[in-house]
Amino acid sequence: MLGHTERLEPSAVQRSSSQLTGQRRTRSTRRGIRPALAGTAAVLLALSPIASSLSASKVKIFRMSGAESFLEGELDGLSLDPFGVLQLADRVERAVQLEQPYLLSAVALGDDWVVGTGNDGEVLRLGRDGGVERLFDAPEDQVLALLAEPDGSLLAATSPDGKVYRIGADGTSEVLVEPRERYVWALARDAAGRLLLATGNSGKLLRWDGEALETVFDSDDSHVRSLLARPDGSVLAGTAGEGLVLEIGADDSVRTLYDAAQPEISAFAIGGSGEVYAAALASEGSQVELKPSGSSSSGSSGSSDDGSSSSPSDAPADAVAAGSRPTGFKGARSEVLRIEPDGSVEPIWSFDQETVFSMLWQGRLWAGTGMDGKLYSYRAGQMVLEQEVEELQIVAILPSSASSPAFATTNAAAVYRPAGERRPSGSATSKVLDAGAMARFGSLHWQGEIPQGSSLSFRFRSGVSPNPDRTWSQWTGERSAGVGRSGELSLDGLPRGRYVQWQAIVTGGGGDDPSLSTVELSYLQENRKPRITELTVLAPGQILVPSNFNPGNQAFEPNHPNRDGIFTTLGEGDESDRTKTLWKLGYRTLQWKADDPNDDQLEYRLSVRSAGAAPDTPWLEIADEIEDSYLSFDSTVLPDGLYRFKLTASDRPSNAEQGTEIAERTSEVVAVDHSAPVVGAVERRGGAFEVEVTDALSPLRQAQVSIDAGRWVDVAALDGLVDSRNERLRIEVPEGAQVVLLRLGDAAFNATTVDLLAVSPADGTVAEGRGGRGRPP
Q1: Residue 428 pairs with which residues in a beta bridge?
Q2: N or C: which end of the chain has fewer CB within 10 A?
């Protein structure tokens, strides 16, 4: 007579471990609460004097400091110094405003400027007094390049039917060179006085000696885009396609100095010590269309989707310009390179969003960009914002007698010149700042230098939509920030909202120039309830442990009993971010997912009660102050039956008691079953047994037989499946068998084994059913 219970090692437990890899896990504890330190790059969690009137555990700070953060907003009349400090910009004045929208090229001619336009192909002379004189009206649509000659004449390169015109000082004009190329992108004179032409679509560098036109270099790229003739007789050429910087020697030898990640070299400038600067582009705003829609590579003069002058005149009306930014390109839109006289090349600056259209050396390197019409200079190893104008692109920078250059813009076409003095005032408007939820705004703290006689003031607005619209509050009146090196303002009266903007107004006066280096704005999110998105009850016996736990056998014993109640739970783990699944008979595990709209730290409480209990029946606490996203506990303290579990999530660790929010979620009905299946009536008919098997709570999952200590063999139910709480089994038994062991297991992994010969009479009558001597877990 044999009878015993045993532990099953279900394959389902082993398989489930892979499903839990990577689960977020923090340290479970019932002692103490760690402070929340969560944050993002744009939000600095801090405790500061400006937060004294708010709940210190939840105050967050928008902090703007340095060039990158200020450039995300809008500047008007302010520039950035090499250290990212805002100060009043040099004043520039719009000397000439043109009716034509597109200005493609510009050059200084004596005391005046000459510009080439797009869509109408005009060459205009602009006087310093604002007068405009038309010098030439080309048959072609675009004047892409201009070159001033020593005798006062001009050379103008046109497209899309590429030609070079000579415009005399007396107003006469003639075709000087007809290269039979679609585009002439740049003109230059080499050291010998010969005319160089950078062309496309064939990508050739051509040379005109006054009588014959010859090809100096035929590039594999579609365009030779830019040119610079050096005093030593060599020439630098930039291509569009592969983005190569080429050096053509005085003997016409060619070598590649640099292969840029960006596909276009748009501009050159020669520095004060013989070094050369180059701009490499991968931009939708480029004038070169490397991948036009429905045609071969082409140039451009219209307006692209992003507002730049980059829509080919001969492209279909519905063509979409791609510029020189390849599909999928992830790098910076512009990169500035420094080329030393020995040919070595070094990137010195990159613009993630700006397109460098033009460069000039005047005391230092200057760069004109789009898409927001910004003029930068390179100082102390930094690109410093000097000017920002309302026109979209600065396409040419022109020398001037002042410390800063003049410059020409397009979209719309204008020429600006330095006024030789500081602007009297300027403003900086922050980008729209997102609090992540409805919030109350507390204080603003600033740092800088506001001397006596100068002033700094702020105004604010807030809203619920991400873009300022008529649903936002109106700008508040200006609030004086005082003078000195720092100060603070209360934001009382500013309506609550999810989004906020500030605007600083800086006014000069007295001796020293004012500056602004840091702005911090505090806010307090309205506390919102946590969200429990998932509550799962794992299979009986499954437990979660830290992934680095490696016991000698696959059973995790508790570190210590729970002395606060009857439930024994798994003890404190480590700070591992991963878990794995093991097996422990009699244990149950609940696992959950939860988050908090305020990014608060959460703690959890787990409770249980009978599934049939009245609604006002108290819940029995299993554990509290849980920081993990799961809990494994010894369920043998619960009698067999049906239960529900309740998970409560609280944001108490991150909030004062009066501000705590909680969320609750109740599990589905869970069977707690520690009893093995029971063998009922057993009937022997000839060489077979028919056995009735029942289980109080769980369906059967396993029925196997072993005859005379032979291997275990699955037993079939009469209905075909062993899958319910009541089954009738048929077992074939050979004549003369001495021991017939029936092993049964249920879905709760309770198991029992009985000897059928010990419970079945030999004459074939039905015997009283009995269970094996099962050992409950």
Answers
A1: 75, 504
A2: N
